[in-house]
Amino acid sequence: MDAGEVRRALTRIAHEIVERNKGTADVVLIGVLRRGEPLAKRLAENVSRIGEGEVPYGSLDIALYRDDYDVRPHPARASNIPFDLTDKTVILVDDVLYTGRSVRAAITALMDFGRPAAVQLAVLVDRGHRELPIRADYVGKNLPTSRTEHVRVRLSELDNSDDAVIIQKGEPVE
Amino acid sequence: MSVTNLAGRDLLGLEGMTRDEITTILDTAVTFSEVLRRDVKKVPTLRGKSVVTMFFENSTRTRTSFEAAGKYMSADVINISGSTSSASKGESLRDTFLTLQALTADLVVMRTPYSGACHQAAEWVNIPVVNAGDGMHEHPTQGLLDLLTLRDAKGSLEGLTVAIVGDIAHSRVARSNIWGLNAMGATVRLVAPKTLLPSDADRLPVTVHTDLREGLEGVDVVNVLRLQLERQNRALFPTAREYCRLYGVTRDALKSAKPDVLVLHPGPMNRGLEIGGDVPEMPQSLIEKQVTNGVAVRMAVLYLLLGAEG
Predict the structure, then answer these.
(1) What architecture does CATH give domain B141-287?
(2) Would you place residue B1 in the very low, low, confident or very high pLDDT band (cuts 50, 70, 90)?
(3) Cβ–Cβ of B40/A112 closer than 8 Å?
(4) Residue ranges of the domains in chain A?
(5) Mutual orientation of helices B172-183 and B140-154 as an angle, nearest 10°?
(6) B58 pLDDT exceeds 90?
(7) Residue A35 and which of B55, B101, B149, B187 are 20 to 30 A apart at CA?
(8) Could you tell me which residues are beta bridge partners of residue B161?
(9) Quick one: pLDDT band at residue B233, thresholds 50, 70, 90?
(10) What ipTM does this complex have?
(11) Closest chain A residue to B73 measured between Cα atoms?
């Protein structure tokens, strides 16, 4: 995906969020750190541009909830959710949906901040290979991949480059 | 954020630690500060891990904050105090550690009156050992929480001038502060009567002042140390009253420092002795923040040392 495709995908998802929730009352966006955070912010801006009101957004760190603490090191960052999640419709936002394990961790983490009325999932890319019974409600692009490939998402806010989604062969570079 | 992997390492002192390593711990502690502000301050991260704290000296805040840190991360925390351990039956420290390791402890936190005992113990076992204060040597988590508290307040430690005032000779807190602040680019002054200065002061990266007002001149931070009356077996100053008059950090003495000077004290305080009775309540006092940050720093240390390697 190039910058234009990313932009159009986020515009469409913003419309889908408004349509599915019949407006934006009680809807909040929570980006999973790190790349879900700028995506959540952009979706919030898109929704307000559609004229459906301001949607609060926050960020969620899942390092403390991962199931691979013993396997791989993950730097822990601070979550920033400056509002109560109880009885809200929370839309989790992440860049890539793969095994589903990050989403599982994110749902567990969310519950420590309150009891949402519902949780929905928005991702920029769904690359398949789920290991848990999890699916996304909003998908920017379905990108069939093999497990040996690595999907890299670059966002202008974090990566000093234009938005892009690239499939790389071989071992992950990060 | 710099990412330095500390998994499997010991935390024995801040001497020799790099700026990146310290920054990694402080950045991680910021995450845990957020957890501590939540209504539900518990995360599942260390489920199934066991942390043993072993204190051969009295302590309230350090032991409690290690215990809280472990529990808030869902670790099982087992507290052993010196008087109830087999050490009182004559078991050697080495055998005690080997027993703890055989009992499948994942990490041991130790406070001891003997300088260097934690280094020694770390050589005997494969699990991480955290020094919670060893004699007059180091108290690294106290040093780290002081660094975090100052970094939170000032944004950066680079270029700050910090005066450490009081009983420096007996103070492990002072040593950890000296090494930590030095690694982070701050300047350290020691302010104390000659009898309370460490004998190796000339080999430490500090400047030394024996006059309080001269030592506080223009500093950004004053870290007031407790007068360790329990370690005073010789007459190192004539009377408490004279010490208080010459070296007590009072509201008046703080006028020599910068107007926005910050005040730290590792606790427990002797109010009206080393610190003016009303100084802890001044807006520049960060003493309560230090305690909260102590939990966050210890959570970060457990998280990083028990984490996955490589």
Answers:
(1) 3-Layer(aba) Sandwich (3.40)
(2) very low
(3) yes
(4) 3-147
(5) 50
(6) no
(7) B149
(8) B187
(9) low
(10) 0.84
(11) A64
Centroid of chain to Cα B292: 13
Chain B residues with beta carbon closer than 8 angstroms to that of A68: 308
> What class, spelled out in words, does domain A3-147 have in CATH?
alpha beta
Cite the residue boundaries of each domain of chain B with CATH code 3.40.50.1370.
19-139+291-305, 141-287
Going by the DSSP 8-state scheme, the letter that residue B255 receives in this structure is: G
What is the Cα–Cα distance from B192 to B243, expressed in whole angstroms? 10
Q: Average pLDDT in the B32-41 region?
A: 92
Fold held by B19-139+291-305: Rossmann fold (3.40.50)
Give residue B121's identity as a one-letter amino acid code: A
Take residue B44 and report the two structure tokens written for it: 């599942």
Among A61, A70, A84, most B C-beta atoms within 10 A, so best to mutate, is: A70
What pLDDT score was predicted for residue A171?
Answer: 64
Give which of A112, A113, A158, A174 to mutate to test B binding, by max B Cβ within 10 Å: A112
Helix (H), strand (E) at residue A164: strand A164-168
Across chain A, which has 174 residues, the per-10-residue mean pLDDT values are: 95 96 94 96 94 91 93 91 95 97 96 95 97 97 93 94 88 56
Q: In chain B, which residues have their Cβ closer than 8 Å to the Cβ of A65?
A: 43-45
Residue B3's pLDDT is: 64
pTM of the model: 0.91
Q: Do A80 and B34 touch (CB under 8 A)?
A: yes
Contact B30 A70 (CB under 8 A): no
B50 to chain A: which residues are within 8 Å by CB? none
User: B199-217 burial, b for 16+ CB within 10 Å, e for fewer?
Assistant: eebeebebebbbebeebbe
In sequence order, what are the beta bridge partners of A138? A122
The confidence band for B86, taking pLDDT boundaries of 50, 70 and 90, is confident
B31 and A73 within 8 Å at the Cβ level: the answer is: no
Residues of B with CB under 8 A from a CB of A: 1, 3, 5, 7, 24, 27-28, 30-35, 38, 40, 42-46, 73, 300, 303, 307-310
At what angle are helices B19-36 and B140-154 packed, to 10 degrees? 80
CB contact under 8 A, B45 and A77: no
